[in-house]
């Protein structure tokens, strides 16, 4: 009767080993992802730092490339129709609404 008991113990041990192996693989994968994200962050921050350093050096050099230009803001209009200003819809006529005639009121 000891043979089934040993098989049961060895099956439980094998299953526990599989669970430990899966946890190890999962944790290793998670650590690799965190490492890659940290590495990408370091690379992008150094590129951003280099670009800002070059922009600051270019500001002192009149022959340098001008960066970070902002387009002038459009003048406010009285029509209050932003879609018409962009050309998406036709502009409404700026004529006032016709006054109600006295005959229509009766």
Walkthrough of the structure:
By secondary structure, the chain is an all-alpha fold. The chain contains three helices and no strands. The N and C termini lie far apart (110 Å).
Question: What labels would you give this structure?
Answer:
single chain; 106 residues; mainly alpha; 3 helices
Radius of gyration: 36 Å
Biggest sheet features:
none
Order of helices and strands: HHH
Percent range for helical residues? Answer: 55-70%
Secondary structure class reads mainly alpha
What is the number of beta strands?
0
Write the layout of secondary structure elements.
Elements lengths: L1 H59 L21 H5 L15 H4 L1
In short:
The protein is mostly helical. The chain has helices spanning about 1-60, 80-85, 100-105.
């Amino acid at each position: 009767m000891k043979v089934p008991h040993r098989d049961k113990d060895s099956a439980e041990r094998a299953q526990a080993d599989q669970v430990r192996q899966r946890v190890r693989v999962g944790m290793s994968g998670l650590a690799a992802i965190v490492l890659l994200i940290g590495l990408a962050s370091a690379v992008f921050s150094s590129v951003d730092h280099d670009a800002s350093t070059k922009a600051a050096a270019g500001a002192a050099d009149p022959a340098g490339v001008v960066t970070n230009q902002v387009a002038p803001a459009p003048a406010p209009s009285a029509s209050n129709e932003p879609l018409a200003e962009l050309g998406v819809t036709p502009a409404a006529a700026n004529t006032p609404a016709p006054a109600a005639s006295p005959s229509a009121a009766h």
